[in-house]
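Renewal narrative, Specific Aim 1. Our central claim is that a sequence can be written position by position from structural information alone. The example that follows is taken directly from our test logs and has not been curated for this report. It begins with the structure tokens describing the chain, in the order in which they were read.
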């Protein structure tokens, strides 16, 4: 009987292993990349794919040929290109369920429906001046007057355009934001590359060569100052130069390179008014991703004691291209479910985090053949809608759509409950996640929280230990210790009382020179009694 049971166990384990391997191979085989995640030690570990490539949409698929058809209401001109050209930005409007694309080298803004079909196009506003290399676009319905406004970073026209959207082809110019005429703005040029606006319709612009933060304007166009500047990366060279400045002459100091913070690459704003920024500089670890409150304070500040890491944790060498890739974060978008998606220009990967900046999954690539579907050449923008991720490639001139896998859907469902504090409800979903990926760290965290919430402290300790979650482990240990004391309180008190009584009796006996304790302990009592 024992032999039969052992055989059954071995057979079941073997079948489970084969099933897991085939599932993994199937998931990897469909994509041009291998998904991974980082463990507690910062080492990459394989993970199930949370997203799969759904399709790639080109200008022809969008219907851009309509722009050169004189019979079409969206007609722009007979020479209007049916291809995207070095598009630099993309924005998804959740209210209208439409995408807006800054088609930079074609000098136009495209308006696409949720299936990425063309529904509108704009080459300029009502002032008659055509857009010139528009590099950023943001669309928002005003809470003040209910109108739909578009904000365009009109790069080579050195202006930000705010216009009301009148139709699928017409924009009514409302305001131009140009170079601030103040001593506080020290840069000669004004080339806005990205733009967002808050609920009060204050405008924030990322401008080339401006490293003090985003240039901020009020709704009326008044220069408000700079918002949320990056800090200088603290390197050995920076520290050495700072020390050297204390001893150098004025002539030597004037010849030194100034250490200045790097400028943003892009940003996004959530419903709560928090602005998220990314910095594209290679190897930037200081302020690579920031979450700024309306006062410009970074919520994700490593100097406060917490640790926030974004992108890959180490550079990667590609032997095929003989090149080393370092993280260069180029865009960020906040999904309607609060998930944070960060696009790495250097590797073409999308890093997805939950609301607390915990890494959930990594997908996408740039290192494989550029002609292969799902690999990128110049990934410029990322957006999210309806559980899909959209990546705009400025060189391949297309948009790639990623859809959720079963693993991704389960993981997102569990994360949603987890972030709401509904740990017990998330428990069976986390178990399902672990059935597909036994090494997924967040699942152990989720199960640990559920166990802690249900008072199963020993289970919680085991889960937190597996996840290397020190703070949560300490918390569970505290609860487990308190529970042990409560359950054994009478025994502990009894033992203490007996011990005290025993010591009192022992002391009385010693006063009468009766030593019932022998050995070293007895000698010690005797010495104390004799005052030695």
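The sequence written for that structure reads:
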């Amino acid at each position: 009987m024992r032999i039969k049971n052992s055989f059954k166990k071995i057979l079941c384990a073997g079948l489970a292993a084969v099933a897991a391997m085939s599932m993994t191979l199937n998931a990897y085989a469909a994509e041009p990349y291998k998904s991974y995640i980082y463990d507690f030690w910062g080492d990459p570990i394989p993970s199930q794919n949370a997203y799969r490539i759904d399709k790639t949409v080109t200008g022809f698929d969008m219907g851009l040929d309509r722009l050169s058809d004189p019979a079409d209401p969206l007609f722009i001109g007979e020479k209007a290109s049916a291809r995207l050209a070095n598009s630099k930005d993309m924005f998804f409007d959740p209210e209208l369920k439409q995408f807006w694309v800054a088609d930079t080298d074609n000098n136009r803004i495209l308006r696409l429906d949720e299936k990425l079909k063309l529904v509108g196009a704009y080459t300029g506003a009502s002032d008659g001046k055509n857009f010139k290399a528009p590099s950023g676009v943001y669309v928002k319905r005003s809470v003040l007057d209910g109108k739909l406004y578009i904000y365009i970073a009109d790069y080579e026209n050195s202006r930000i355009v705010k216009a009301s959207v009148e139709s699928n082809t017409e924009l009514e110019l409302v305001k131009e934001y140009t170079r601030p005429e103040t001593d506080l703005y020290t840069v000669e040029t004004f080339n806005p590359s990205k733009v967002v606006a808050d609920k009060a319709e204050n405008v924030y612009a990322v401008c080339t060569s401006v490293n003090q933060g985003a240039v901020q304007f009020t709704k009326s166009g008044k220069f408000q100052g700079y918002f949320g500047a990056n800090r200088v990366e603290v390197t050995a060279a920076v520290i050495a130069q700072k020390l050297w400045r204390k001893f150098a002459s004025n002539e030597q100091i004037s010849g030194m390179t100034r250490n200045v913070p790097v400028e943003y690459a892009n940003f996004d704003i959530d419903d709560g008014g928090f602005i998220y920024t990314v910095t594209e500089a290679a190897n930037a670890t200081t302020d690579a991703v920031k979450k700024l409150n309306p006062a410009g304070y970074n919520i994700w500040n490593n100097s406060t004691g917490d640790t926030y890491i974004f992108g890959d944790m180490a550079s990667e060498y590609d032997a095929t291209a003989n090149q080393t890739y370092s993280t260069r974060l180029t865009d960020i978008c906040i999904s309607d479910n609060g998930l944070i998606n960060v696009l790495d220009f250097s590797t073409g990967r999308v890093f997805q985090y939950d609301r607390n900046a915990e890494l959930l999954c990594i997908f996408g690539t740039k290192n494989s053949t550029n002609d292969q579907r799902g690999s990128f050449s110049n990934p410029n923008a990322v957006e999210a809608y309806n559980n899909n991720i959209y990546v705009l490639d400025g060189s391949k001139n297309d948009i790639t759509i990623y859809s959720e896998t079963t693993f991704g859907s389960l993981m997102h469902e569990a994360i949603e409950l987890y972030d709401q504090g509904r740990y017990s409800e998330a428990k069976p979903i986390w178990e399902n996640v672990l059935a597909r990926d036994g090494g997924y760290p967040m699942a152990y965290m989720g199960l640990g929280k559920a166990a802690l919430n249900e008072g199963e402290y020993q289970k919680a300790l085991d889960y937190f230990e597996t996840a290397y979650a020190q703070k949560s482990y300490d918390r569970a240990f505290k609860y487990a210790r308190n529970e042990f004391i409560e359950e054994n309180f009478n025994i502990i008190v009894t033992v203490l009382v007996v011990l005290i009584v025993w010591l009192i009796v022992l002391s009385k006996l010693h006063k009468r020179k009766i030593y019932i304790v022998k050995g070293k302990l007895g000698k010690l009592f005797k010495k104390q009694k004799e005052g030695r």
